[in-house]
Design a protein that fits this description.
The protein is an alpha+beta fold and about 300 residues long. The protein contains eight helices and 14 strands. α2 crosses α3 and α5 packs across α8. It starts with a helix and ends with a strand. The chain binds biotin.
Length: about 300
């Protein structure tokens, strides 16, 4: 695998439990000691705690950043940014030429939510877009949202022993408050998907904005910070397991097992208006089947769902 100089230095620091001298680094990597020192300075700026003494350099701790050099080989390109407008903006450009790719950001200045909403993206959260190129029809694209919701809920359940549930179509809740939002943007040609950019935002260690009354962070739920890296990697693992299930009934079955939506009377806000009733099922495309207060059956493809009261 091709490594940047920064990655090579980090690798050497990780491998050496004790000190490694500037001279050894310089000799092994074929660059000057000054150049090594400059890299060490940048690493420190990024939050790596590196001790330096007459014996050389020693890594004391690494930041909880989702830097590519901190991640194992994911089998796809990884772009990491400290700050972007939205990982969806970057992903949209990259998707035209790249294969499956991940775009991660530590913060976003114009994070996008569903239905044109703003997604507050403070430091400490997990924000990424996954460029997917599944061989499915545009009509099935919505299933990617469901697949991602299951993956996030499963990862949270397994890592933190919390009962994460799904609210249709794709909010992940803990204690009925939102810990994760999912947004998918698609480009299609005729009846084939060109790409789907799957954006996932997780309230991990970030502060929740005052205006997000229904949101909560995992840090708040657990009373301590979590390892963002561990959660991020677990989510990717769960997504990978389910990528081949798009369009298959098992995926829908699994979504239903994770969902709390069927336990509630709901209000669905769609572009055509608001509708209330009892959710009965989701169909093979992930659309919600609802019995309205008037007793009619409605199939709802997209909308915002509010859990009202339990039956
Ligand atoms: C929602 O409204 O619930 C969806 C929120 C999706 C937020 C994520 S964060 C990473 C990616 N970049 C964005 O701008 N939005 C998505």
């Amino acid at each position: 695998m091709w490594l940047t100089m920064r990655q090579k230095i980090l690798e050497a620091l990780y491998q050496n439990k004790g000190y490694i001298s500037g001279e050894t680094l310089s000799k092994n990597l074929g660059i000057s000691r000054v150049a090594i020192w400059k890299h060490i300075q940048t690493l420190r700026k990024d939050g790596y705690v590196i001790e330096s003494s007459a014996r050389g350099y020693r890594l004391l701790s690494a930041p909880d950043l989702l830097l590519p050099e901190e991640l194992p080989n994911l089998g796809m390109k990884v772009y990491h940014f400290k700050e972007v407008t939205s990982t969806m903006d970057i992903a949209r450009k990259l998707a035209q030429k790249e294969k499956e790719t991940i775009v991660i950001a530590e913060t976003q200045t114009k994070g996008r939510g569903r239905l044109g909403r703003y997604w507050h993206s403070a430091k400490g959260g997990i924000y990424f877009s996954l460029i997917l190129k599944p061989k499915i029809s545009p009509l099935q694209a919505h299933l990617v949202n469901l697949m991602a919701g299951i993956a996030v809920a499963k990862a949270i359940r397994d890592l933190f022993n919390l009962k994460a549930t799904l609210k249709w179509p794709n909010d992940v809740l803990v204690n009925e408050r939102k810990v994760c939002g999912i947004l998918a943007e698609m480009e299609a040609e005729a009846d084939i998907v060109k790409f789907i950019n799957l954006g996932i935002g997780i309230n991990a260690n970030n502060e929740i904005s005052y205006y997000e009354k229904n949101a909560i962070s995992l840090k708040e739920v657990l009373g301590k910070e979590i390892s963002r890296k561990e959660l991020f990697l677990q989510i990717l693992k769960e997504i990978k397991k389910r990528k081949g299930l798009l369009g298959r009934p098992e995926l829908i079955q699994e979504w239903k097992r994770f969902s709390s939506t069927f336990n509630y009377q709901v209000r669905i806000i769609t572009i055509h208006g608001t509708i209330e009733g009892q959710p009965l099922d989701i169909d093979h495309d992930g659309a919600l089947i609802l019995r309205t207060r008037e007793g009619d059956l409605k199939r709802i493809v997209a909308g915002d769902c509010v859990h009202l009261r339990k039956d």
